[in-house]
């Protein structure tokens, strides 16, 4: 089953064009939607989750016309929003059971089986009697995944999932996501390049409502191969380098900035060729260098 997004347009009443002719083809597996804040990711995610409309365009998931048959889409959708807002004092087990009932799983035995399986899958079995309101950030996100998987969705939408998670929690979250992504379409929206690098074979880069790149992560890297150069500089020199070169990023390594620049040819002046990474691609695309 494929998700086909064609020529989506969305302008908010304040005049912001949040989606500008967005088209994407997304197949089975983990798909990363990468973009800075304000790129239009959440607008797209909420549209896919049938929570808001666009002005123009079409979306189909297999035979389902998403924008015109929201009920059909909701039957096969799992959604993990940025924030749930309310975390009830109910236990994880009870809350999942309740959500399964809302999803139409009428048999108590079926619900018990599904809830147990989900709790095991997201490593919350031991904590199943605890109130969700007392969960840590990581546990809440794992609970979020569990609820999004009720009813065997074909499409799961995950919006900015790792903000505020410590490295251990993030790893656990990643592992669960990548397991899920083997059989269905999972779209992961994030501004964190590392999330996409670690999890996704296919990706898109968005900025200001437009899709700047869509394809495999390998192809994305090819776009800048041999054109990324690195050098450790002094903090005070950064503005000079910004003037002279196309600086993509500056990161502190042991207290000193390591800059990555984009250049078709060898820039000389102590720069050495660097192994390209997705962050380079991201910034090169945002700066419209590639
Ligand atoms: P992202 O998720 O990539 O940060 P969003 O889809 O949230 O991007 O926002 C895209 C643009 O649309 C931003 O400029 C944002 O301020 C604007 N925007 C988002 N939601 C609304 C809204 N409900 N009303 C008006 N403008 C909005």
TrEMBL record:
PROSITE patterns: ABC_TRANSPORTER_1 (PS00211), ABC_TRANSPORTER_2 (PS50893). The keyword Zinc does not apply. The keyword Ribonucleoprotein does not apply. PANTHER family: ABC TRANSPORTER, ATP-BINDING PROTEIN. Keywords: ATP-binding, Nucleotide-binding, Transport. It holds the Pfam family ABC_tran. It comes from Flavobacterium cerinum. This is ABC transporter ATP-binding protein. GO terms for molecular function: ATP binding; ATP hydrolysis activity. InterPro entries: AAA+_ATPase, ABC_transporter-like_ATP-bd, ABC_transporter-like_CS, P-loop_NTPase. Residues 3-233 form the ABC transporter domain. Belongs to the ABC transporter superfamily.
């Amino acid at each position: 089953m494929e998700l086909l997004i064609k020529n989506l347009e969305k302008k908010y009443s304040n005049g912001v064009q949040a989606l500008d002719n967005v088209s994407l083809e997304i197949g089975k597996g983990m798909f990363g939607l990468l973009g800075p804040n304000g790129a239009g990711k959440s607008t797209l995610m909420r549209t896919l989750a049938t929570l808001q409309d666009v002005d123009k365009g079409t979306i189909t998931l297999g035979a389902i016309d998403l924008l015109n048959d929201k009920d059909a889409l909701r039957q096969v959708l799992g959604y993990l929003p940025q924030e749930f807002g309310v975390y009830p004092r109910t236990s994880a087990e009870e809350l999942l059971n309740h959500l399964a009932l809302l999803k139409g799983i009428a048999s108590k035995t079926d619900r018990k089986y599904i809830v147990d399986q989900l709790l095991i899958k997201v490593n919350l079995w031991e904590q199943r009697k605890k109130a969700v309101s007392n969960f840590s950030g990581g546990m809440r996100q794992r609970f979020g995944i569990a609820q999004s998987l009720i009813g065997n969705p074909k499409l799961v939408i995950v919006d900015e999932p790792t903000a505020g998670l410590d490295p251990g929690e993030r790893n656990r979250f990643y592992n669960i996501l990548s397991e899920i992504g083997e059989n269905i379409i999972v779209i992961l929206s994030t501004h964190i390049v590392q999330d996409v690098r670690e999890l996704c074979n296919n990706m898109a880069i968005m900025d200001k409502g437009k899709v700047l790149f869509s394809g495999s992560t390998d192809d994305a890297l090819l776009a800048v191969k041999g054109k990324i150069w690195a050098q450790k500089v002094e903090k005070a020199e950064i503005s000079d380098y910004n003037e002279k070169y196309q600086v993509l990023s500056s990161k502190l390594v042991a207290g000193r900035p390591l800059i990555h620049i984009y250049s078709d040819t060898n820039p000389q002046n102590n720069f050495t060729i660097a192994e390209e990474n997705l962050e380079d691609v991201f910034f090169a695309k945002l700066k419209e260098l590639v």
